[in-house]
Amino acid sequence: MARVLTPRAEDFPRWYQDVIAKAELADNGPVRGTMVIRPAGYAIWERMQSDMDGRIKAAGAQNAYFPLFIPESYLRREAEHVEGFSPELAVVTHGGGKQLAEPIVVRPTSETVIGEFMAKWVSSYRDLPLLLNQWANVVRWELRPRLFLRTSEFLWQEGHTAHATEEDARAYARGILHDVYEDFMRQMLAIPVVVGRKTVRERFAGATSTYTLEGMMGDAKALQMGTSHELGQNFAKAFDIVFSSAEGRQEHAWTTSWGTSTRMLGGLIMAHGDDNGLRVPPRLAPIQAHVMIVKDGEGVAAEAAKIRDALRDAGIRVGFDDRVDTPFGRRAVDAELKGYPVRIEVGPRDLAAGNVVVVRRIAGTKTPTPVTGVVSAVTAALAEDQQALYDEALARRESHTVDVSNVDAAIEVAATGWARVPWSAIGAEGEAKANAQGVTVRCLTRADGSVPGSEDEPDLIAYLARAY
Amino acid sequence: MARVLTPRAEDFPRWYQDVIAKAELADNGPVRGTMVIRPAGYAIWERMQSDMDGRIKAAGAQNAYFPLFIPESYLRREAEHVEGFSPELAVVTHGGGKQLAEPIVVRPTSETVIGEFMAKWVSSYRDLPLLLNQWANVVRWELRPRLFLRTSEFLWQEGHTAHATEEDARAYARGILHDVYEDFMRQMLAIPVVVGRKTVRERFAGATSTYTLEGMMGDAKALQMGTSHELGQNFAKAFDIVFSSAEGRQEHAWTTSWGTSTRMLGGLIMAHGDDNGLRVPPRLAPIQAHVMIVKDGEGVAAEAAKIRDALRDAGIRVGFDDRVDTPFGRRAVDAELKGYPVRIEVGPRDLAAGNVVVVRRIAGTKTPTPVTGVVSAVTAALAEDQQALYDEALARRESHTVDVSNVDAAIEVAATGWARVPWSAIGAEGEAKANAQGVTVRCLTRADGSVPGSEDEPDLIAYLARAY
């Protein structure tokens, strides 16, 4: 059989590109750095959106939509924010056939414009908390684009909230971090993220605390899968988000923001893909069970349709492939590439014995199964393989995370995995040294794995790694 | 009671702005022509999206995502298309801190970039039809913006398909027109749209046929609620969408495109709103039944919560208002403004008699109802009032549509309604004359209401009106 993909061990980035192309997930857009998300990729994103959207609403936030275009002057109001973003901006100078009086920025994120409207909508403590979320596209100019991971335009959700107290803002930012993001990533994406605090050097432009979720990819590099920020009163002061407290005082609100993006699709590919292609966690998969007719024969099409309907009736998301004029081998390779968790191969020979073949993409098994047992076999496989994928990712994370005691050792470990180091042995100076070698502090955690309230707490652990 | 809204009869456009502001549906963005869709407005849009998305998928189209940024040169490839759009374009000239070598256009619509990718993905007749849809934001510079109706940025879905034959493309464009759009607008939006064909003068830039759905607003003006286009082989030739036919010939594909947008929200407001605010059709409403505690009293909160849960268990989307420290009158005005189809007022006095008050926004009734009968009363009200809203809109359309026989009479009728005129009595010359008076040919239909295949068919009817 011809080699379909570059093996991961040979060239991981090349393998990644191959999977995206062959599984028809995405393509480069005509403007450098932009991306076309193809139907197979978009269907996965839609499932991510829909699950995450339910969790965000359960956390009390309401969806809204703010404009793509932001006056350039808005970004300048928060000094750190403008500094963080100005090299990445796309600027509109002409509209409606004329040069514009003030240049317009295509949103790189919406703290500024949402801050402006929060100021209008909030006047009393009764208006707080104000909990907003939007699903949108944003633009950050990329010189070295990589599909899903770094693209000039990407899709995301961005949450923005305003609170009466710092404690309330902190509790909300952390609630999103753990109850929405961490739970989604573990339960749906099957990725055992490490959750921690970014160092001052790594935190978001304008934030007082940035929390992050870091996933380990198949090559043991790290990917930042999502972030949640406390913005203190920085944006409230820049945009005048003021409320009268229960005691009648005028106070600045405390705001948060938090986001996850199509980058998670890149994480999914790199965390779970193998040399045969994508592997999609069953709970997330747009197609969980793919019914394939091997070749025509008496009653084969009818039996395949019956199996499809029975699976669908059991609440399973089903694909159907009856393209018998295409060689079966090619279609099977394609199903492997696309990573359907289970496929059910229906052919005349097995069917004569009352069987079909159940192929599990994650367990790697092919089992002749009586037609009457297909639904229960598939249901069990989907549950087991969701867990198996998580366990495999966790085992890799554990075997590739090494405890060391100083920055030089951490830089060495980062060539092949993640280093856990006492933060006191790194500090700002060690961090700069690591950065110079292409290694970053991914996050800080407490010894028990919980998220610290400041980087000055004693006995913190730093995770150092190379990252996407 | 203070007047909440400008009455429609006094100043319809002002009433429209008032409703949007007071029902907290949207706000003007900081860049001229842009729009902030607030949670109450976005929740309605989400319901539109979700219902429509199901219909589009049932029509076989798959969702994908194409880039926001399009090279300026793409738009020039189809002559009519560039001419149609160039005065409306927003142009990015700077990215990543530098002037760009080629200016980039922010998509006004995606025929061109999708055409480019269809050309890559299609090679054989087996790849056809290729049925794509995307939910996205687009930008068309507006000098006279009006919230939801004409904004520089708006949200929409745009479908793009490629077919092997003209017949297949035509059947698909018309299937979307009737089975997706018309059915959605009648069944969900409760708007009895007139469906017809645009004249050559009104059709989409680059199309060979444009089909439209026209709704009558509360002031008897027309609103184009959606369009579906046959693009012939124009884009296939401009972008080289070529396939080898079953007979082995190289042929250009036939493409279609079709779109509906947040403009439908404007149509919903103007078709159904009254002097007390918005009226949302029950099937569409994010909140169908709003349970309100009139004032505190023994057992009131517990009973209200029980009613809320019973409604929710019956599959009804429920809101809950227990803000008893805000005067009830103010909250009732707000509920009228927001247009919840039914509200259930729970207060100590009625409750002592075992009753609550069921207030129907559309029927305009207030009925004391035994607690045990609330679910069935609400269920019946929602079904009846969906129909009542449609019937009311249909009655208005019929009473404000007048048959006339020439263009001068049509122009006169258009001051207060729609004119139906034999197309043979108008023609290109009459159309130009009407246009000069601010009146347009909204669409052409056959005498039996069906959609003509060309404007040259005999005995066609033209609808002339003023329009948004």
From TrEMBL, chains A, B:
Signal peptide: none annotated. GO terms for cellular component: aminoacyl-tRNA synthetase multienzyme complex; cytoplasm. It is an enzyme of class 6 (ligase). Its main location: cytoplasm. Keywords: Aminoacyl-tRNA synthetase, ATP-binding, Cytoplasm, Ligase, Nucleotide-binding, Protein biosynthesis. SUPFAM superfamilies: Class II aaRS ABD-related, Class II aaRS and biotin synthetases. Catalyzes the attachment of proline to tRNA(Pro) in a two-step reaction: proline is first activated by ATP to form Pro-AMP and then transferred to the acceptor end of tRNA(Pro). Consists of three domains: the N-terminal catalytic domain, the anticodon-binding domain and the C-terminal extension. Homodimer. CDD domains: ProRS_core_arch_euk. Belongs to the class-II aminoacyl-tRNA synthetase family. ProS type 3 subfamily. InterPro entries: aa-tRNA-synt_IIb, aa-tRNA-synth_II, aa-tRNA-synth_II/BPL/LPL, Anticodon-bd, Anticodon-bd_dom_sf, Pro-tRNA-ligase_IIa, Pro-tRNA-ligase_IIa_arc-type, ProRS_core_arch_euk. Its EC number is 6.1.1.15. It holds the Pfam family tRNA-synt_2b. One of its GO terms (molecular function) is ATP binding. It is found in: Cytoplasm. HAMAP family: Pro_tRNA_synth_type3. One of its GO terms (biological process) is prolyl-tRNA aminoacylation. It catalyses: tRNA(Pro) + L-proline + ATP = L-prolyl-tRNA(Pro) + AMP + diphosphate. Residues 32-281 form the Aminoacyl-transfer RNA synthetases class-II family profile domain. The keyword Aminoacyl-tRNA synthetase applies. This is Proline--tRNA ligase.
